[in-house]
Amino acid sequence: MAVAPTAPEPITPAPLRSTPNPLLTQSWLDLAFVHWAVDPADVAPFLPAGTVPDTLDGVTYVGLVAFRMHRVGWFRLPGVPYLGTFPETNVRLYSVDTHGRRGVVFRSLDASRLIPVAVARTAFRLPYLWSRMTIRRSGDSITYTSTRRWPGPRGAHSRITVRVGEPIAEPTELEHFLTARWGMHNTFFGRPMYLPNTHPRWPLHRADLLECEEDLVVAAGLPEPAGEPASVLYSPGVPVRFGRPGRPGGIPTP
After folding, report:
1. Which domain holds residue 177?
2. In a domain, 249, yes or no
3. b/e sequence 39-68, b meaning 16+ C-beta within 10 Å
4. pLDDT in tens, 68-120
5. CATH number for position 225
6. Rounded CA separation 248/187 (Å)
7. Quick one: which of 181, 63, 159, 71 has its CA closest to 116?
8. How far, in Å, CA of 202 to CA of 84, rounded?
9. Which of 2, 6, 147, 186 is deepest in the core (most CB within 10 A)?
10. ∠ CA(206), CA(211), CA(215), 5° rounding?
11. Nearest Cα to Cα of residue 172 among 35, 41, 44, 68
């Protein structure tokens, strides 16, 4: 007998669960969040089985998120300074499963370290891609660049420049919806998976998008973003802890 879907969990700025014994630790630093509103029907075919687009007021979003991954580490071991530290840019969607767990679905994850990319692709079936990447700051502006090397489409790229504005004292419901995501949905060897994560409440800033030249969204198989972004945010970052996979199980990614 089919099980009726559970109502989605509330949108909360703080995690709903704790991770006393983390599987994985890392920090996400200097993040630029750029989001476009899309029709849920346009992205539903790209989500794993058992999930549907997560929506707010009938709308879902495509996110382009650029940042610095810092010191990835397993369990309680110290994070790795070189192989665990690199720029990353991901294209992501928003999902909710039949258990009501809200999450993200990654369509692509460009990163500048080949070994972590190869391990993630081979062992965990995650859509990591090796790219040439830089992050440069000048005053209150930050520029993130990415040019794909392997496996392709070779040359897929992005160049994002944001000007960091004032801290946001009280984020809106949409700003929490786009950033306070406490898990990831994916498919691992044909099985649905979900992996929870926890971190402190995001310190968010207003941001102006000075430049956005990219084709990563289209390279990820999604429709080209239409019009101006619905939201542009910046965060100096947070330390992150990934918990043990629940049911269905999963493999972690930022």
Report:
1. 30-242
2. no
3. ebeebeeebbebbbbbeeeeebbbbbbbbb
4. 987 665 556 555 554 568 999 999 999 999 999 999 999 999 999 888 788 77
5. 2.40.400.10
6. 10
7. 71
8. 22
9. 186
10. 115
11. 35
